[in-house]
């Protein structure tokens, strides 16, 4: 499996491109979405060296911590609260260059400087969000949004 994580590319876009087929194969061979989330967190953290990568799953009108890689995390997030809850409420990806400037940001770690959150949808309903934090400001851009949105689509097919 270590070879899988040794993706190749000189640019971020090339790196994402080199991961698409292997990730699709990995996730397509497993029907359990929790297992798929766990493996995807590992691949993304190991490949890109993000500070924190994880999923929050909609349960009883709140986001509940799911599989993740990184330090301790907030366990529950309310609808419309913080970056994750806002992404859930608005049903769209949110890129935050400086988390301290995001109104209502929930600080699970003082090391987190920027963040991207992408909702997972089934039949136009958000059922989970992918949350990735970086310890660098303005780490995420439209390239991350494009490829991460595509990658999480592979998980939505397993629910």
Index terms:
26% strand; alpha+beta; Beta-Lactamase; 159 residues; 6-stranded antiparallel beta sheet
Topology:
Layout: H1 2-5, H2 12-28, H3 33-48, E1 52-59, E2 62-69, E3 76-78, H4 82-90, E4 94-96, E5 114-122, E6 125-134, H5 142-156
Antiparallel strand pairs: 1-2, 1-6, 2-3, 4-5, 5-6
What does it look like?
There is one protein chain. This protein is of the alpha+beta class and 159 residues long. It has a single domain, classed as Beta-Lactamase, CATH 3.30.450.40. Helix content is 38%, strand content 26%. It contains five helices and six strands; from the N terminus they run H-H-H-E-E-E-H-E-E-E-H. The protein has a six-stranded antiparallel beta sheet with strand order 3-2-1-6-5-4, with helices on both faces. Strand 5 and strand 6 (125-134) form a beta hairpin. Helix 2 packs parallel to helix 5 (142-156). It is globular, with a radius of gyration of 15 Å. It starts with a helix and ends with a helix. The mean pLDDT is 91.
The number of distinct structural domains comes to 1
Please tell me the overall pLDDT: 91
Major β-sheet annotation:
6 strands, antiparallel
In the CATH hierarchy, the architecture is 2-Layer Sandwich
* Shape assignment: globular
CATH fold-level topology = Beta-Lactamase
Share of β-strand residues: 25-35%
Rg on CA atoms, Å: 15 Å
For the biggest β-sheet, the strand order reads 3-2-1-6-5-4
Tell me the span between the first and last alpha carbons.
24 Å
CATH superfamily: GAF domain
- Report the top-level CATH class: Alpha Beta
Question: Based on DSSP secondary structure assignment, what is the total number of beta strands?
Answer: 6
What structural class is derived from the secondary structure elements?
alpha+beta
Number of helices: 5
């Amino acid at each position: 499996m270590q070879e899988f994580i040794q993706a190749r590319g000189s640019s971020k876009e090339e790196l994402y491109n080199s991961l698409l087929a292997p990730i699709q194969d990995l996730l397509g061979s497993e029907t359990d979405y929790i297992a798929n989330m766990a493996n995807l967190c590992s691949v993304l953290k190991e490949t890109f060296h993000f500070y924190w990568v994880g999923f929050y799953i909609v349960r009883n009108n709140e986001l509940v911590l799911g599989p993740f890689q990184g330090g301790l995390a907030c366990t529950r997030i309310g609808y419309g609260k913080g970056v994750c809850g806002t992404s859930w409420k608005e049903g769209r990806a949110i890129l935050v260059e400086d988390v301290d400037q995001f109104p209502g940001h929930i600080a699970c770690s003082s090391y987190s400087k920027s963040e991207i959150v992408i909702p997972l949808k089934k039949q136009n309903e958000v059922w989970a969000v992918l949350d990735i934090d970086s310890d660098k400001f303005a780490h995420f851009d439209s390239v991350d949004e494009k490829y991460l949105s595509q990658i999480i689509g592979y998980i939505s097919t397993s629910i």
